[in-house]
Amino acid sequence: MTSINTVLIANRGEIAARIIRTCHRLGKRAVIVYHDADRDSLPVQLADAAFRIDGPTPVAAYLSIDNILAACAALGADAVHPGFGFLSENAEFARRLEAAGVRFIGPGADAIAAMGDKIESKRLAQKAGVNTIPGFDGEIVDADQAYEVAREIGLPVIIKASAGGGGKGMRVIHYADKGACRAAFERTRAEALAAFGDARVFIEKYIERPRHIEIQILADQHGNVVHLGERECSIQRRHQKIIEEAPSSFVDGRLRQEMGSQAVALAEAVGYASAGTVEFVVDAKGGFYFLEMNTRIQVEHPVTEMITGLDLVAEQIRVAEGEALGYGQDDIKLNGHAIECRLCAEDSARDFMPATGRLECFDSPEMDGFRLDSGVREGDTIGSSFDSMLAKLIVHGTTREEAIAKMRAVLEEMAVLGVTTNATYLGRVLAHDAFAAGDTTTSFLEEHKAALEDLVPTPEQLAVVLSAALLTNRTLADARFTPPAICAAMGAWSNQ
What we know:
By secondary structure, the chain is of the alpha+beta class. 37% of the residues lie in helices and 24% in strands. It has 20 helices and 22 strands. An 8-stranded antiparallel sheet has the order 13-12-9-10-11-14-21-19, with helices on both faces. Strands 3-2-1-4-5 form a 5-stranded parallel sheet. Helix 5 runs antiparallel to helix 6 (109-116) and helix 13 runs antiparallel to helix 14 (423-431). The longest helix has 19 residues, at 178-196.
């Protein structure tokens, strides 16, 4: 297979900028698509060429396969990197690129399709010897069946969309209440149909207070598959990860080997070739169960890169060019500890409402072991057309304690003005005793909600802030605003 010359990035934001940098390091031409909302963005500036796309909405523009194919033809791209989100797990997209003679930097369309359907992927996982959560095998067709199946499995259970992802299309049922079960079934089907165009749902046992631990795998087109250890992603808000780390403080060598072997077995079973992630829920006793497989690069992939020294995007490109991995499982070494925080434009004091505005200041600290993956810069306007993530802050330390301390320092020194962010909230999570102790489950944020809420400033703190604002107010330093002499001579005199 020939080398790739021009990679089109079918994405935007920080992941687009991150892929462009690797392409340039590898000597590849990197081109990109953009909607008008991203016309002046950092990724468009970094790319060697850009192609304007349009659609009913900005998101729809990036979801149009025709748009991407037109860009490939116009910019001479011989490969597409989809990043994450948008078309990254769309089997039809991979097939149409192949038909057009453009390589898809990712797994084959059949593997994407097999893992994209949660009912089918669970069956495949069972055949491959992967632990799966007890539940009903197949689609639940109506609310009455949902209630009966829930009782047979034993509460609590969770109803999931078969085509779901990103935390959407899920409802937990705790009690044997037929009306509540019926309502949960109908809402899940409606949400699944609206979000994924597929209303099918299934039911399985709900694992309470689990950890979310995932295994990164790499596979080539010659049948070689390795795993790169685990990431723990238990700190989630509304099923969305906000802090990830590698390795997990919960996983020992034996558990890592067991989870890694099952992840590799699943990849081999579907003929996988690229980077992929097998996600598990893990109970308090170390029992682990297949959740899903993400057939793309993950948002949190940098923590794996920090402890393995591998560039996963570069590995994806090498695999797409037909190269063999060139290393085996015994060659994979995990070094130190890495933590990633997702810096988002949102207000934790207002139930995490998205924040918009102009970035008057966006300045990150300089620190050994700190990496910033960002798609924005000072002066950019942050709108509401896309998700709220501004950047990923990633640190590496010799130990978990060192990594936590380093990330807390980064969050304190990160200067963002003009748009409210979740930086102080993230800092409070990292400072919590339970986090420091490694007592992290997917319920962490809810269980410690009161301790993580925004603090009300003291009168002394307010006085300091107001004093600083006054000292930097231009009216105090600009002679044009000096009061006339007759008024100045009145001093503090008042007739009141």
